[in-house]
Amino acid sequence: MKRLLLLVLVFMLVLSTNVFADEISMGYAKKDFPESFVPVTKIMLFKKGQTLDETLASGWQNLDEKIDVEDFNIYTDDIDAFADKYLQILYKNPLLYYVENGFRYAYYSDGKIAYIVPSYTETNKTVINNTIAEIEKATDEVLWHIHGNMSDFDKIMTVHDYMTLNYEYDQSLKNHSITIMTTKTGVCESYARAFYHVMKKLGINCGYVTSVPMKHAWNIIELDGKWYHIDLTWDDPTLQKSDAYAQTNHTYALLSDKEISSQENPHYGYNLDGLAADSTAYDKAPWHGYGAIVFSGGVDYYVSGNNLVSSKGEIIYKNLDGGDGGWRLTQTTYLKEAMFANVSEYNGIIYFNTDMAIYSYNPKTKETKEVLSEIGLGGLFIEGNTLYYSKVDINTLQLKKAGTIKLGDICYKEPYYDNNELIVKVCKETTKPMCIFASGSDKIQSSKITGNGLTQIKFSKDSGEQTIFYWDENLTPLRDYEVIK
């Protein structure tokens, strides 16, 4: 009989002093791509109708202490490739947050592996199911910001900006999983897994990239048939400053291999396994740098240089830094060549900040109004019905939470058609019920909302145009009606 030996793989966490570095929990994690992009090897065989992916995923879901892989003919000589494959499959199942990267395996005297012994951070199924439900709820909160008429570019950047504005880098280096979506804090693996998960929900091809020498992870994304690097961790200012607030940037968004490898802090030591991010279409895009990209009414708004501009070529506001070559912190002090402007949207109105004030801009009337006057502003973002803004601390030069502005009780997202459904979204922060009516040539549909929070209503699509009415329970209009064609 073959003698069964037990070998333990131990994967040590390596801490780095590089401010841009992050730890990877095992050295074999190099790629995470759809199955078609993985080279075919002898470890990708079928077992009783199941692929290796299905066998591992099923075992993880069942919290199996041992997962039988004997029929896949994996040998100890293949352990590096298998460990790599193990991670690929795990990264493609980010909701299995409780499965650790390291594992043990048992093998026969001829080197054939009989079974593997996974390691779990949690084995209570009730806790696991509750956590997954919380992750899915958080996923819905991200997807609530996606408009059906967005291009894939806008969907990618909307998710990128949501995560970098709402999540923070885990300075304690503890959370490596998708639970960043509920805890709001995690390391590079967390950002990459959360982004991969949401892109999968949106039907956008996305991969997981790691660099062992960098001890870092990020994503690769397909857009218009081309692949690009996108690194949410390095685009989140909280990586460098734990209290950075109300800011994001796009320095590492949609870059080619050449560009991401030639940045001031370059990416290196990664393997895309045959893929090439060789398109330079976005390497020098005007929206690189600080500030979100906001989609509203079919138009993108973003900070370019010193100005707030639109994708239609309009300059909405010139010289966000006042035109004096620096970001003013006090009447007599300013930072040279600094930019802390950001942009957001609420009910079709664009909000942005300069170093001296917060403004609103109405795309329909082209009117700009001052909302708040305060020196040293350092960014803003809107979540729900509240605008959050920060200031630059004159002593530390870090961004600090400064205040909030309540914009209303109900946030209305622009309605849109999705296949044969009309989608209407609102964020309600009032106890008063509201009614939504969709009136078309065929019929009138209605829905009553009594609770608070994010709500998505689905009406059937009419043969002609439909008019959306937002009324209170006494049928008094809450806002102007909208016509959807």
Give a quick rundown of the structure.
By secondary structure, the chain is an alpha+beta fold.
Structure, described:
Among the domains are: 5-126, no CATH class; 290-408, 6 Propeller (Neuraminidase), CATH 2.120.10.30; 410-484, Immunoglobulin-like. Helix 4 runs antiparallel to helix 6 (188-202). The chain contains 8 helices and 32 strands. With 485 residues, the chain is an alpha+beta fold.
What's the structural blueprint in terms of helices and strands?
Layout: E1 5-8, E2 31-32, H1 52-61, E3 67-68, H2 79-91, E4 99-107, E5 113-120, H3 125-143, H4 152-166, E6 168-169, H5 180-183, E7 185-186, H6 188-202, E8 206-211, E9 216-223, E10 226-230, H7 232-235, E11 253-255, H8 257-260, E12 294-296, E13 299-304, E14 307-310, E15 315-317, E16 326-328, E17 334-336, E18 343-346, E19 349-353, E20 357-362, E21 367-373, E22 377-383, E23 386-392, E24 399-406, E25 410-412, E26 416-418, E27 421-428, E28 434-439, E29 444-449, E30 453-460, E31 466-472, E32 482-484
Parallel strand pairs: 6-7
Antiparallel strand pairs: 1-4, 2-8, 3-5, 4-5, 8-9, 9-10, 10-11, 12-13, 13-14, 14-15, 16-17, 18-19, 19-20, 20-21, 22-23, 23-24, 25-27, 26-27, 27-30, 28-29, 28-31, 31-32
Helix pairs in contact: 4-6
